[in-house]
Amino acid sequence: MDRTSQNPQVRPTGWVDWGVRLWRGGVPEDVRAYVNRWRRRWDEGQVLREIRGGPSGHTRGPLIISGFFGDSKGISEAARLTAEGLEGAGFKLHRHDISHLFQRPFGSDREEIFDRPGGVWLTHCNPPEAIALFARLGARRWSGRYRIGYWAYELPAIPDDWVRAAELFDEIWAPSRFVLEAIRSAGVRTPLRWMPHPVGLRRFDKSRSLTGSPDNCVTTILVMGDLLSSGVRKNLLGSVDIYRRAFPDPTPSVRLIIKCQSHEGARSFMVELEKRIGVRPDIECVSFRMTRNEVVSLIGSSDILLSPHRSEGFGLSLAEAFMMGVAPLATGWSGNLEFMSGLDDLLIDFSMVRVEDQTGVYPSGELLWAEPDDIDAAAKLRRLAKSPVLREDLVRRGRSAVMALSDSWSPKALVKMPMCQWIENT
Question: What's the half-sphere exposure (Cβ side, CA atoms, 13 Å) at 331?
Fold first, then answer.
């Protein structure tokens, strides 16, 4: 789950910019977090009042998808896949990029695509961002539209404020049955729909590594993680431990690349990561920001994508790896089982433990997530590294499973959905 804009901040111009810098640099983080929570709760209440007090019903109009189209993160790629899936089925739609929406002062928005009333509005972001988006655009821009929320979460039950936010929508989509059950089990009464990411509609090619893989004699193992999505959930530190257990001594035939998207508040995590890596010439940490094409190139140039995660809402990079001929080795629990179920050689054994996330992204407490078995992971990693034939067979089976998920995006399946009665020119 991407939380780049979990606490959307406005970046005004002119004299107000001084106040924004003072707020971010001079106010303690816990105080800012409290104010941001209060602001989101205020926005939530205001939007709910507008929906309850506004006109009921819908009218026909355009299909609009709001998402972080301009970014390179997983949530951005998911939005692009949704748009491509609908366009591939013959739907005409408008892409509304919200990547920089919260960096402009209120009142400066010129969102002309909302000038036409009615139709369907799909917000491809989680409730915290969606509530801020509803509040920012104003009721006149979304009233009368059939509203769909596309959500992803990585724990077995969604937060309470997500349950309240469900009232904003006529329908909620989820990329996996794992996420769908997390929403349903929390008591959400809004109609839910399983809509797995249509990764199979894409065509990928393996390519040369940006980090310069020497030749085909080297088995490249890739680990990826965005610390804004919690390095604890992605288990980046555990990835290093697994690799070092599998390959105690450096060898010229195997190497590990860690693609770690860091941020300002993750310095201590990066220090610990460097400590785990130690003096190993076969381990490389890549922390610079990459474009989407560069990320695809990095995955495609690898042989194994290692993901001993504690939970995944879907596991988009794992599905993409299959499509690029790369074998993903991942924890055998949560959303990635949509396309990895039955591929036991690619699934790491685990036990269930209480959530403990020192980064604060996920609430520690009663909910459970997976604790991967490092010994099992290391054994399977060694076997995959030594056997290209085994990897090829597993990738073939995994690719078929990923491609089958695109059936939900066929014209035959989409035309039966309630939203179609409110879309013009489908």
Answer: 28
